[in-house]
Amino acid sequence: MIRGEGRRAMPHPAPNSEADLSAYDYLQRLSPDRWAWEFLRRNPAFRCDAAARTDTDLSERMAPCVPIRLVRSRAPQTFAERWGLVFMPNPDRNGFDADVVWNRSAFPDQVEVHCTPRALDERCELWDRSIPICNITHITDPVGREYLLVRRNDFVVQLCCTGLSLLGLEPVRMTLAISGVDDYERRVKLQKAAFEIYGDHTRRERPAWTKTTQVLRDGLIALDCIEHGMSRREIACVLHGRQRVEQDWDGPSLKHAIRYLVRKAEALRDGGYQKELLGAEPTVAGV
């Protein structure tokens, strides 16, 4: 069911050099909901639940007329739902490769497309623009709700579909929609960010991290180091170099920064991803 090796599997090798850190470069273009997955898949309790998944939980086939994967839940997804997911993805696959679909309660601000009847001679701009250049997966949850995962150029966009079914016999027209007026400007901003998937993005030799994504990336690195039994000082060496650590470790700033980083990363991993990265109140037991 899960095809391909993925870009980075867990358990992660212990990073100890700049070359090792380059393995995290794929993170730079992930949206907040994909960052949420990166933290969740490092959660031991989640990985324990995910171990119960089987290949028969989902059905997968290709659409007959267009290059779209069709994925549907075959079994109840109780374990997935408690983590805010539509079904249980493979935790060994990263934020780009994994078929991660968040439900509306966990990810209330996900981009919505509304499907209406379309005449045979009428165009659907979203469809016409996406099909030739994007890798698209259509997901149906256990109660029939439909979602799309659209991938291109290291970007992933999750779309929630409302209105007519995309799987019906009649052609449909997809339009962007915003349900309700709460946080309208934020939702418009998310729609605009989703359109970056159509841009002509070239890979940079060195990723351009923002202040926020730098903290998130370093947090994931810290979690991977901890998984391999590394101390906070060793984490600092990985992130900042051994020379700086030897110079500054006895002072308060570097120790405090690493302590803060580890605590924040562990909090995101253990349920904080729901509020900080998905915009929902935490629902995971024990959070």
Automatic annotation (TrEMBL):
<feature type="domain" description="T6SS Transcription factor RovC-like DNA binding">
    <location>
        <begin position="200"/>
        <end position="275"/>
    </location>
</feature>
<feature type="domain" description="Transcriptional regulator-like">
    <location>
        <begin position="22"/>
        <end position="87"/>
    </location>
</feature>
<dbReference type="Pfam" id="PF20109">
    <property type="entry name" value="Trans_reg_dom"/>
</dbReference>
<protein>
    <recommendedName>
        <fullName>DUF2285 domain-containing protein</fullName>
    </recommendedName>
</protein>
<dbReference type="InterPro" id="IPR045465">
    <property type="entry name" value="Trans_reg_dom"/>
</dbReference>
<dbReference type="InterPro" id="IPR018754">
    <property type="entry name" value="RovC-like_DNA-bd"/>
</dbReference>
<dbReference type="Pfam" id="PF10074">
    <property type="entry name" value="RovC_DNA-bd"/>
</dbReference>
